[in-house]
Specification:
The structure is a homodimer. By secondary structure, chain A is α/β, with parallel strands linked by helices. Chain A has nine helices and nine strands. In chain A, strand 5 and strand 6 form a beta hairpin.
Chain lengths: ~230, ~230
């Protein structure tokens, strides 16, 4: 921590964290939290790089964004590094999350321990099916979509998980935006247009599968990947 | 297609597709397949870039890997582009996939239309729970893990979906490798060590959520992201 006071607005002379660096920050957090819990006091850029498959030079470059945390020959203090990474990512607080679309994926996400561990709390669930509305899932009452604005406001929810079918995804995204949601994690396999002022991250599971197929073929030298 | 014959081995003088380009190829495919089905004959790099949030210059650069497909002022022929992208990614064929760990996430993945659309067919499911073995899920019999080698060989499966708890993920990954699986899509929120010769893609849903939180704050100017 080289400065005593946090700066509240970005200024041109200061480095900004790129989205790619932010993605790597998330990757670094996982082994670091594990090591911290296991009592490891310091870690090296080499250890961290090996754990996540990134060169130690890139690790050191990324971590300079956090200020002067590391010491040559000693490494980075594990706990401080975890805290600094969480602060940079904006997860040194909890986020209230609503979920729309109660199917199997929703049930899996409601039980997914990783969200709660990182400060994401699913506080309300919604569905358009009259047969589901009023029922409970993982201890939460299923609301109709008409209740979105009231529940989002009452629970202070800022993020939305979208697990509805392709056909209704765009309309529900807009309803979430209108209700005051500021970020949407979309699981429907389509190109969603983010409503104005709303951030969007899409999880396309088939893309992950395609990347895997690509890597398998690369590993086996089956695809020359020429300009043909 | 500027060359009549496909090259079967990579040679030093030819550009190789990077993993980042391959990831973008997957992104390009989604709107292209949609447009192709809708009867659109040609697309421009600008349209494609806008649909996936990438500059048209980057789109054009990426697509040069596919050879001379585009024509200035006319654009790219949609159908040829879809076929060339699928070939480059290695999904101009079907892949047989096994799934291990039958919980809610598995049930969601078994119903996920996106996999089958892209040529990934889940052909067998496994679990270690004696209470589940022998039962059916989405029309597939649940096998015990002892049957992995026999079933993988019989079905010609090459990829594995890993939806087991954190505690057993590493052991099951090794069992998949021993059974002949060449690529694993891992959903357990931990740093899995890929067994030798096996490609690994990990889907950490909390990472996606963290990226979303980061973007929301960036959008709202709440995080200065200085070197503090």
């Amino acid at each position: 921590m080289s400065k005593a006071e946090p700066t509240q607005t970005p200024s041109a002379g200061e480095p900004r964290l790129s989205r790619a660096s932010a993605a790597r920050f998330s990757l670094y957090l996982r082994p670091l939290e594990h090591w911290h819990q296991a009592g490891l006091r310091t870690v090296s850029s080499g250890q961290l790089g090996e754990a996540v498959g990134i060169t130690d030079a890139q690790v050191r470059k990324d971590l300079t964004y956090l200020g002067s945390l590391g010491h040559p020959g000693v490494g980075y203090p594990t706990e401080e590094l975890v805290l600094a990474l969480r602060r940079a990512l904006g997860i040194d607080r909890t986020w209230a999350v609503v979920l729309v679309g109660v199917g199997n994926l929703a049930r899996a996400l409601l039980r997914y321990r990783g969200f709660e561990q990182q400060g994401f709390r699913i506080v309300a669930v919604f569905d358009s099916d009259p047969g589901k509305i009023g029922q409970e899932v993982e201890g939460l009452e299923i609301h109709g979509l008409d209740r979105l604005p009231a529940v989002v406001a009452a629970r202070g929810a800022e993020l939305g998980l979208l697990t509805v079918p392709i056909e209704s995804a765009q309309a529900v995204a807009e309803a979430l935006a209108a209700a005051g949601i500021r970020g949407i994690l979309n699981f429907a396999p389509l190109c969603l247009k983010p409503p104005p002022g709303v951030s969007l991250v899409s999880v396309d599971l088939a893309v992950q599968m395609e990347q895997l197929a690509f890597l398998v073929q690369l590993e086996n030298g089956e695809r020359p990947l020429t300009t043909r």
